[in-house]
Amino acid sequence: MYRKKFLIAYGITFFLFLLYIIFISDSNISKHIELSKKIKKLDENIIQTKNQINNEYSYQQLKNNPKLLHQYAREQMNMQKEDEDVFVIIYK
User: Fold this and answer.
1) Can you tell me the mean pLDDT for 41-48?
2) Contacts of residue 27, Cβ cutoff 8 Å, sequence gap at least 6
3) Cys bridge to 80: 19, 20, 28, 86, which one at CB 3.0-4.6 A?
4) By the 8 A CB rule, do 45 and 51 touch?
5) pTM (two decimals)
């Protein structure tokens, strides 16, 4: 009898503690989910910003280095000089 009352009291206390932690406290579940979504958006923003920085860096290098610009024009745009032939090999 005494043990049963003891277990019920601790069970109720534990249940109230869980309710407090899940819904009422400063670090409740909804705030945790909201912050997780915010972190995910910020991580995506970081990746996007890094890609923009890399693209800008590549553009600046092409703009400032004529040798790289010449290489890019030949490799990516398939440009050629007047007196030469270019053969493009396409792998399947």
Assistant:
1) 98
2) 21
3) 86
4) no
5) 0.58
